[in-house]
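Changelog-linked ticket: NAP example.
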Amino acid sequence: MANKTETVGIIGLGRMGRCMVKGLLETQTLNKNEVFFTTKHKETSTQVEKELGIKSCKTNDELIEKSDIIVIAVKPQNSAEVLEEIGKKISKGRTVVSIVASIPTSLIESKLPKGVAVIRAMPNTPAFVGAGMTAWCAGSGAKEPDWQRVQTLFEPLGKVARVDEKHMDAVTGLSGCGPAYLYVVLESLTDAGIKVGLPRELATLLAGQTVLGAARMLLDTGRHPAALKDEVTTPAGCTIDGLLELEEGKLRVTLIKAVVQATKRAKALAKQVKL
Ligand SMILES: NC(=O)c1ccc[n+]([C@@H]2O[C@H](COP(=O)([O-])OP(=O)(O)OC[C@H]3O[C@@H](n4cnc5c(N)ncnc54)[C@H](OP(=O)(O)O)[C@@H]3O)[C@@H](O)[C@H]2O)c1
């Protein structure tokens, strides 16, 4: 970390936790001896230790002892047991960062001693390659040094935005789940390339670089996507025929509905978890 005395402990090292750790080690934000983790099953810990070269802790108690920043990265349905187990033992001065979907900071705070700082963050899996998107919000006890810690933790993994907590479920539906929607788009574009006679490897490269390039055009120029689309669409050209198919297939409304449904699910999940 920027402050070299800081250590990070991650409770739950599944798909998202691993993407984060991989990114943090590769960018040398953390050395291998500055990050600890636990998993539910011993076999998973052994496998992760081999894969990433970092040390597991035997218990969550040991992890919180060793860590300045405690990242909770278990599924929402496992968050109650974890908070019940460690909640009261976390002392002030530590920052608890929850990447658990749906669970509000107020609920997490209610399981911790008064004044312990809680940050709720929603990263995504492209953190693995340093192209992640993390949105975060601060709980009532979190102060500037905690905000700084969360920025330092996630900035090397891609872009970071601080948001109001009321937007966190929408963030989950858009950027948290979004990579999955785009993999479906990428798979479809690749299959389309195959359909029109391209070799698979070339079709994959064309699809991937085109999506990456379009995203960079959007972010680097700051222009409206409709204006960027118009530049590709020449009168009576090929693109307008392709766009017409997308309109007939209701691509826009389908993507909007996907985000709306995932957001609703994120809201509903919090009600199902008994904390
Ligand atoms: N996947 C994503 O794209 C993504 C993106 C943003 C946020 N998130 C959030 O990140 C969290 C984890 O998601 P995931 O996809 O990484 O799930 P996952 O792959 O199922 O990983 C969950 C991890 O939690 C561990 N675990 C469960 N109970 C535990 C306990 N009591 N103590 C210590 N470790 C425990 C599991 O250990 P075992 O492996 O031994 O069972 C596993 O390593 C979720 O809350 C999700 O909402 C996920």
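Closing comment: Example verified and attached. The first helix runs from residue 15 to 26. Residues 108 and 118 are 7 Å apart (CA to CA).
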